[in-house]
Specification:
The protein has 355 residues and is α+β, with helices and mostly antiparallel strands. It contains eight helices and twelve strands. It folds into three domains: 119 residues, Beta-Lactamase; 68 residues; 153 residues, Heat Shock Protein 90 (2-Layer Sandwich). It is elongated and about 100 Å long.
Length: 355
């Protein structure tokens, strides 16, 4: 028996690999004729194994493999001009559902320059592509439903705010009118948060434009003379999840509204600054003003609804509240340390002014 050449040995190895493979594989020559096929290929595409070897690819099955573009790519691969990588095609079979296939073909190199062979791997990605399309459709549907929900929530909040304001105007009790006005402001604050988040990405929210737009909305509804009172935002380039952003936005609106209501009596001029800076997983949110400052007995003042809201949100964020005399004015800081995630709760201090 004559000694086998290197190309013959390589060919035998390739055929042995194909015969033992669980993946759909074809070994082709430079004329795109099948040299060998794996059992899984014949089984997957319902082709008689006896009708595969020695037959052109275009004649396999009922001719569904007769795809001119694929044949051109395979011949270019055999010539060394191209490689088929991640090529997708629809296999159309009469009486059966179409299948989406992913093809990869590589030329096998032999040291002695023997007969050219192409290894063609075939993957059926029909189910994966169907799942991807279904996911995309669900995401689009979710986005539409979310947008509709946001519109409904915004409209509902506006209706509630209008009802509260109308009730306040019709009330004969000064105390009741005060409570209704407070409720009206809080509904507006929730509406402002909802409005800003509705135009943000669902996953991550950029805090600088978020706080800026939020404060602009609050200022537009509560500051009559912007030359007399200013509301500024100083924020780094931090981003946050939408869940955390909701809590931060509500804290900002409560503290800003509190400052606007109490820090500048008798048409006093001044400014309010909203500041947020992060370091690692920790961050500090502060709202400061240069108004009249804390009263001498502010620490014993009965906490209002706003105080309870801010404290509850701070606990949720595992943050600590600090109220200091800014001389002039008041500064309220909400701080979450990097180690706060390991704490069981957050220390909170009642705000000096009843929010």
């Amino acid at each position: 028996m004559a000694p086998r050449t290197a190309s013959e040995i390589a060919l035998n190895l390739a055929m042995a690999m194909i015969a033992s493979s669980d993946a759909p594989l074809l070994l082709l020559d430079d004329n795109v004729t099948v040299v060998a096929a794996s059992k899984s290929f014949c089984r997957a595409f319902q082709i008689d194994p006896a009708s595969v070897a020695g037959h052109p690819l275009v004649e396999l099955g009922a001719g569904e493999w007769n795809v001119p573009q694929l044949c051109s790519l395979l011949k270019a691969t055999a010539s060394g001009y191209a490689e088929v990588e991640g090529y997708e095609l629809d296999l159309v079979r009469s009486g059966q559902g179409n299948r989406r296939l992913l093809l990869n073909a590589h030329k096998l190199d032999y040291e002695d320059g023997g007969n050219i062979r192409i290894l063609l791997a075939v993957s059926d990605v029909t189910d994966a592509r169907t799942a991807e399309r279904l996911k995309e459709d669900l995401l689009k549907e979710k986005a539409v439903l979310l947008q509709e929900l946001q519109h409904r929530v915004a409209n509902s909040l506006q209706i509630i705010a209008s009802v509260l304001m109308q009730s306040a105007r019709n009330s004969q009790s000064v105390e009741t009118r005060g409570h209704l006005h407070d409720a009206h402001q809080r509904v507006l604050s929730v509406a402002a948060v909802q409005k800003q988040l509705s135009v943000s990405n669902i996953g991550q929210v950029e805090l600088r434009p978020y706080f800026s737009a939020l404060c602009e909305s609050i200022g537009a509804s509560m500051i009559r003379d912007h030359k007399q009172l200013s509301l500024d935002v100083k924020t780094d380039d931090s981003v946050s999840s939408s869940e955390v952003s909701v809590s931060l936005g509500l804290i900002v609106t409560e503290l800003v509204i509190n400052a606007l209501k109490h820090a500048f009596p008798d048409d006093r001029k001044g400014k309010i600054i909203v500041d947020y800076h992060a370091q690692g997983s920790g961050w500090t949110l502060s709202v400061s003003d240069n108004g009249v400052g804390m009263s001498e007995h502010g620490g014993s003042a009965k906490p209002g609804l706003g105080t309870s809201i801010v404290q509850a949100l701070a606990r949720q964020l595992q943050a600590q509240i600090d109220v200091t005399d800014a001389k002039p004015g008041t500064a309220v800081s909400i701080t979450r340390t990097q180690s706060a995630a390991d704490d069981s709760g957050a220390k909170v201090i009642p705000l000096a002014k009843a929010v």
